[in-house]
Every structure is written in structure tokens, then in C-alpha cells.
Design brief:
CBS-domain, about 20% strand
Amino acid sequence: MIKAKDIMQKEAVSLQANSTISEMIALLVKHKITGIPIVDPKNILIGIISEKDLLGCIFAPNLGNKAVKDLMATKVVSMDEDASIIEVCLLLSEKNFRRVPIVNKNQELVGIVSRSDLIAYVYEQFKKGTPIKIPLHC
């Protein structure tokens, strides 16, 4: 069984809660991503922030100087690194998420899986001629 830890981006871009919105936007643009997990100093997942969170206040005065903690979502849905990719796929699909942070047993951020990561995995299997044994919804 393929697990989240097998396909996740292990070098997940993350920020701490006191980082600025300006720093966040710079990372979104630099890495061509749409959201960033927020961690505490011990790398424990405490929030997430995305482009969507910015849209309601994108033209607010001094937005770039505000702290990420002022806009981040604190009720974060994450998945364990040992979750199957089927579980990850279902979560992304059913919740209409673009990404899900991956955590270990201590709730430390260890990676992230995006829709693109799943599609890339499927593509690699197609190229290899490997049958994919995943229940499909179509």
C-alpha cells in the first residue's frame, strides 16, 4: 500500500505564526504554491494559510506587515504520514482541498501532499505500465 509519506513533498514550505503576510506572499510566488502550513518553533502544525485567505483583504492598507497568525486558519485538517494515498485522495476530493499537510505521530509537519503530487504519482504509474489498484469514483 502506497502511503502519504511515499509521495509527499518532504521539504514542505512552512512559516511560523509571527511571519509577515509579505513573507508569505513571497514564498507563494517563489515556490508557485497556493498555501503554506504554519508551525510553532518545534515544527508542530498549528495552522494553514492560502491564497484564498488573502483575497478578502488583499488591498487592505499595510497588509504586508500583518502577521500570518492574523489570517491563518487554526482548524487544520492534516493526515498522518502512514495514511494511504487513497485516504489522501478522498480527503482532497471530498473537502475540495488543494493540499493537505502531513504530520507524524507527534503532530510535527513532515511534508505536504497536493493534488498535483497525486496526479504526478498516477502519471508515473501510467508511464511504467503499472496497474493502479485504487477504487475509482468514475
